[in-house]
Amino acid sequence: MAGSEKTIAAISTPQAAGGIGIVRISGENARQVAQRVFHASSGKSVLAAKGYTALFGRVADQDGEFDEAVALVFAAPKSYTGEDVVELSCHGGLFLVRRLLAAVLAAGARPAGPGEFTRRAFLNGKLSLTGAEAVMDLIGAQGKQAAAAALAAKDGALGKRINGVKETILALSAHLAAWVDYPEDDIPALEPKAFQQDLADAQQELEGLLSGFDRGKVIREGVETVLAGRPNVGKSTLMNLLSGCERSIVTDIPGTTRDVVEETVRLRDVVLRLADTAGLRDTENPVEAAGVARTRERLKTAGLVLAVFDASESLNEEDRSLLKELKKSRAVAVINKTDLPVRVERNEIQAAIPQVVELSAASGQGYEALAEAVEAALGTAQIDPAAGMLATERQKQCALRAKDAVLEAREALEMGMTLDAVSVALDDAAAALLELTGERVTDAVLDQVFARFCVGK
Ligand code: GDP
Ligand code: ZN
Predict the structure, then answer these.
(1) Are residues 148 and 178 located together in one domain of the fold?
(2) Which residues does K(+) bind (predicted)?
(3) SS3 66
(4) 159 marked among binding-site residues
(5) Which of 334, 349, 382 is the last residue of a domain?
């Protein structure tokens, strides 16, 4: 491949007007390409820049100079991609940035594909595959905890945990192979107990990672959350409280919320995708009955239900049917309107839904308690982002394959099958983990990973 084809360029800032716009160039001809477009005021050449260098000057295309710019030169291998990188920052108008990119392409770079800079960083050993995936998560992180988890993954927390399991399995596998090949030689005898214990530990670590994935999903993607409760208990008011602005229609007329109102809100670190629902009232009206059926369906499929009750009134039939409906759901009971004299049967609610919060949606009193109860119900409070978590479906599938293979190896050992069978299972486990970390991964998998990225990253 000619050198110029290997040099890629893209706009690295968002495709919108901003303070500055950056065109990033990476590859062995990055400096030559930049030098054709950029002229430093000092007369210095980009070609001669050493280490990290910032130069101020102007950028030009065939029609002449069109903006002031700063060129940041990162000499290989000390750059994001590990190659020579030049970042040209110009004023942020979209027109200017696009013109700059066009000039750079005309000067010999080719347009970068999605995630191609990060792919090169991975191929040049600057970043692990899980680290590269974390870059993506970092860009999309919705909350503080999610960002912390992504940053920890980028810094290799996940890699460390996986490597621990991987080393164990590779060591067992090597030991086993040596023993199968030369049983009469001087290789220490296989100690079945220690062997079993190591496998059990590996399995446990993998199971820990897998259960962390499900909990981590909550902070990465948010939770499908349903607001339930009979009319007039204050669902819309609560939704407005959580979203921090008036969206739902609050009325004194029961049953006003006909259509589902949806809103994404953040409760501390948890992102809730909230849907207000029609109630569970018995009704002859076919339109309302359809709404009730939809509510029932949503209660079953939701990741979290906020079941709202009116503190100032005794539980009625509809409240009780909601309690019954929620026996198996992940739910928090919200006793609303606690600013009024309390008449509701709190014990009866708590018997059905252990997490109970007292709140006044109208005044906001109890908001913190609600946030805590939601974190408790979702198990997000126990997430330690720094511990390293599986972050993508791909990673999860690899960990799952590894766990199943470890389990197979244990069973083969216990059932007294040949050591070959154990060995095959261990090799499967190792292969799955090597794919997880990206140490042994196909181009097709890489294509999939980086297709999720935006161009310019
Ligand atoms: P929804 O039908 O469940 O959505 O209930 P709304 O949010 O529309 O509220 C019904 C009525 O209860 C309205 O008049 C609200 O102002 C009132 N309300 C809601 N929350 C509170 C509260 O915390 N305290 C009191 N006193 N009234 C409330
Ligand atoms: Zn409402």
Answers:
(1) yes
(2) 232, 251, 253, 256
(3) strand
(4) no
(5) 382
Number of domains in the chain: 3
Q: Which residues contact 315 (CB under 8 A, 6 or more apart)?
A: 309, 323, 344, 345, 348, 349
Q: What is the ipTM of this complex?
A: 0.98
The CA 244 to ligand 1 mean position distance, Å, reads 16
**pLDDT tens digit string along 113-138?**
888 999 999 999 888 888 788 777 66
Residues 240 and 180 in one domain: no
- Tens-digit pLDDT profile for residues 234-293: 998 998 888 775 545 455 555 544 445 677 787 877 778 888 776 677 777 777 788 788
Strand segments (E) across 323-420: 331-336, 356-358
* 3 state SS of 23: strand
- Residues 230 and 335 occupy one common structural domain: yes
Q: How far apart are CA 21 and CA 47, in angstroms?
A: 22
Residue 54, domain member (yes or no): yes
Q: Domain range holding 86?
A: 4-112
- Determine the atom of ligand 1 nearest the C-alpha atom of 336: 23
Do 167 and 295 share a domain, yes or no? no
Q: Is residue 412 part of a domain?
A: yes
- Distance CA(214)–CA(389), nearest Å, equals 10
H/E stretch holding 25 reads: strand 20-26
243 and 348 within one domain: yes
Say whether 24 counts as a known binding-site residue. yes
Q: Ligand 1 pocket: which residues have CB below 6 Å?
A: 229, 231-237, 250-252, 257, 336-337, 339-340, 360-362
Query: What's the predicted TM-score (pTM) here?
Result: 0.61
98 domain-assigned: yes
Residue 279 among known ligand-binding residues: yes
